[in-house]
Amino acid sequence: MPHSHIDVRYVANLARLELTDEEVATFQPQLEAILHHAEALSKLDVTGIEPTAHPAPVFGRMRDDIPHESLPPAAVLQNAPDQAQGQIRVPKVVTDA
Amino acid sequence: MISTLRQQLVSGETTPAAILERLAGEIAARDSRTGAYLSHDLDSALAEAAAADLSLPLGGIPIAIKDNINVLGQPCTCGSKFLSENYKSPYDATVIRKLRAAGAIPFGRMNQDEFAMGSSTENSALQTTRNPHDPERIPGGSSGGSAASVADGTAIAALGSDTGGSIRQPASHCGVVGLKPSYGRVSRYGLVAFASSLDQIGPLTQTVEDAALILQAIAGFDPADSTCLDAPVPDYLTELNAGVKGLKLGVPKEYFGEGIDPGVRKNVEAAIQKLAAQGAEIVEISLPHTEHAVATYYVIAPAEASSNLSRFDGIRYGHRAANPADILDLYKKSREEGFGPEVKRRIILGTYVLSSGYYDAYYGRAQKVRTLIRRDFENAFQQVDAIVSPVAPTPARRLGAFSDDPLHEYLSDIFTLSANLAGIPGISVPCGTTDFDGGKNLPTGLQILAPHLGEAKLLQIARAAEG
Hints:
The complex is a heterodimer. By secondary structure, chain A is mostly helical. Chain A contains three helices and two strands; from the N terminus they run H-H-H-E-E. Chain A has a two-stranded antiparallel ribbon with strand order 1-2. In chain A, a hairpin with a 2-residue loop joins strand 1 (about 85) and strand 2. Chain A starts with 7 loop residues before the first helix and ends in a 9-residue tail after the last strand. Chain B is an alpha/beta fold. Chain B has one domain: Amidase signature (AS) domain (Amidase signature (AS) enzymes, Alpha-Beta Complex), CATH 3.90.1300. Chain B contains 15 helices and eleven strands. Chain B has helices spanning about 1-10, 15-35, 40-50, 95-100, 145-150, 170-175, 210-220, 260-275, 295-310, 325-340, 340-355, 360-385, 405-410, 415-420, 455-465; strands spanning about 35-40, 60-65, 105-110, 155-160, 175-180, 200-205, 250, 280-285, 385-390, 425-435, 440-450. In chain B, strands 1-3-2-4-6-5-10-11-9-7-8 form an eleven-stranded mixed β-sheet. Classes of the chains: A mainly alpha, B alpha/beta. The interface between A and B is large, with 54 and 79 residues.
């Protein structure tokens, strides 16, 4: 198991979080302490043990294919921070080549 | 008590509007001290009260709602700045639809730790909630507003959510009843997801009977939640007073070790003796993987949270940062500005344990240890009908005592997390008070755990413990 080192700024970027330098300094020892605690799991023998993703798994249940009403566009748009012409407006995503 | 109020409603002694007006008065008189309510909308509740069908099981009964459960047209802040600016729920959660179908009136939005991450309600970005028994202390969390309002008499009953103890622990700290149903018993549709394989909605109430009445209304299959089980819902009231004679109750030795406050131990042992005096057989059992529950939980829950909270990106709802340079900048700034420190910590932790190179060592391994923890309970329930233990190692601590030490806070969740990892139901029932760390007469709770979908027996034992 890796030894409780975490590059906080790098992982925060993966999670799309822009942290201040202060936050990085605060989180670094806190997260290392938590990861160090989690390393105790490496001492357990889990050979041949199936992972549990859900405590009461339900697989392959099909619902009847019956049309039903979805949220109307106005209800979906009511919480959008910015909207125009019945759509959610965002900064330009595609740039000129 | 709901049944008393129901009798008064049916006999015409009171009306739903009168109950709401009385509650609004209690809130005005006392909630500035407790801080349990983030908001309440008396006018819309009164409009519903005017149309209440008193023939229904919860007809005319107002129920306070944790602020992470969507109620059409109401705020749903999750205790976060991210959703506090102008979000209004565009639909009812399934539990709300079911409560309305049973005649209840959702009234009030209850404070919580931000996105239900915490055990004290101190992680709410919006306000401080105080324990009604001692305002210098936490109410517990994350459903701290729900627990504090029921304890304070500013709500009759409340809904909370429990991912690692977030119903049971605040119930214990505030001296009320808190029930976490089995995973899959209650639909999660419309509950803002924290950790989808652990979250369940449940009631916080004054009595065990009230908890049974509310569970009866909210349990059952929902096609909108694929993890909600298509299993029959028994009548939770028929066996409620059947007692504990002949039942075997397991006392896990790992739950009574060092770190448990002597006052908590004394009260829990006395509660167990009371059940023995009513005819229950007490058996010592072992849950050998208990010491690994905190590590397992604090890998799995943040992993699921980091995935679930990716939806808060500033695009469709909630906070959007001003003047972003581009779309990536918009995501990063909106999340930086909108989330508080505990949420950021857990997102980073969860992202890390899911990232390439660390996945197998942390997340994959934690899922296997989760299997071992689940098996501990399966083995225990071969021997006993239910398990009895403390809810939390200590009564409510002082506000601010752990604020720089999240791991220390996590370790205090040791007795409640395992039920979520195993998917089994658990309840907290008040068991007296004790003095702790300068505080006087602070409530303690007895936790009862039962096999998956064993809520009827769980409530039956809880009723006997409540005595």
